Description:
Strand order of the largest sheet: 3-2-1-4-5-6-9
CATH architecture: 3-Layer(aba) Sandwich
Shape: globular
Mean pLDDT: 97
Order of helices and strands: EHEHEHEHEHEEEHEHH
CATH superfamily: NAD(P)-binding Rossmann-like Domain
Distance between the termini: 41 Å
Number of domains: 1
Radius of gyration: 18 Å
Largest sheet: 7 strands, parallel
Bound molecules: NADP nicotinamide-adenine-dinucleotide phosphate
Structural class: alpha/beta
Oligomer: single chain
Helix content: 40-55%
Low-confidence stretches: none
CATH topology: Rossmann fold
Number of helices: 8
Strand content: 5-15%
Amino acid sequence: MSLNPPLRDWNGKRVWIVGASSGIGAAVARALLEQGARVALSARSAPELERIAVPHGDAAIALPLDVTDVAAAAAVLERIVAAWGGVDFVLLCAGTHQPVRAWNLDAAVAHRLVDVNINGVFNCLVPVLRQLQQQRKGAVGIVSSVAGYGGLPTALVYGATKAALINLAETLYLDLAPRGIGVFLINPGFVKTPLTDRNTFRMPALISAEEAAQAILAGLGRGEFEIHFPRRFTLWLKLLQLLPYRIYFALVRRGTGL
Ligand SMILES: NC(=O)c1ccc[n+]([C@@H]2O[C@H](COP(=O)([O-])OP(=O)(O)OC[C@H]3O[C@@H](n4cnc5c(N)ncnc54)[C@H](OP(=O)(O)O)[C@@H]3O)[C@@H](O)[C@H]2O)c1
């Protein structure tokens, strides 16, 4: 039995994607628009949002937003509700990454990643949860990462923000599933996007943003709680988590060479 009400028929559905200007969020936006959904696209880069929205006429609206601005996040949701009368699915996908190791930890960098990856989610989540509970239906998806499963070199701050989101989604699910509101946790492996284009190391099982979008839609359609992909990579990472730390640390060192 699926943990969430499956999301399959997107025709006419009202969707808000935060972090829709590039990468995974943009690919999900395009895929849902193709399936007949109405999509509100948010991120900071207004021209990128417009480029995706314009060909779809009234079905897509570009609503620029910096997720670190708490008042702006609530105002964008208000505009969506005013335009469409409610929202059926919200995908919180905005995030940023910067490699950090113990010897170059910098408080300003850490605060920036926490501000976007964690506080940005809370800034959107608060008005979204109010709206979904008022409607008594709808669903929210939080994009975390397999980097949140356990410690990995270079992910000193990023991994911590993503681990926080995994815990957040689990707790949200416990609270909201009995009230009929869907909560999806999305944990991608490596996806080729502007975020990973900066990586200098070889990324195992790298997939395209379009493949990631298809995996997300398939998981939503099955009502899965955790949507993780590609499985040929993520299942190994899940297995690693079951091992004693002595073996986990040794395998991570060997696998990453770091
Ligand atoms: N690519 C991967 O391998 C991978 C793996 C696991 C998890 N993820 C997660 O997937 C999500 C999407 O990443 P991506 O790979 O698709 O990277 P991306 O192409 O860089 O997309 C990041 C999105 O977040 C938006 N964003 C960043 N800061 C923002 C802010 N302050 N306010 C509003 N929007 C902001 C960006 O738009 P603007 O710059 O226009 O604001 C962009 O739309 C992230 O949460 C990332 O951590 C990615």
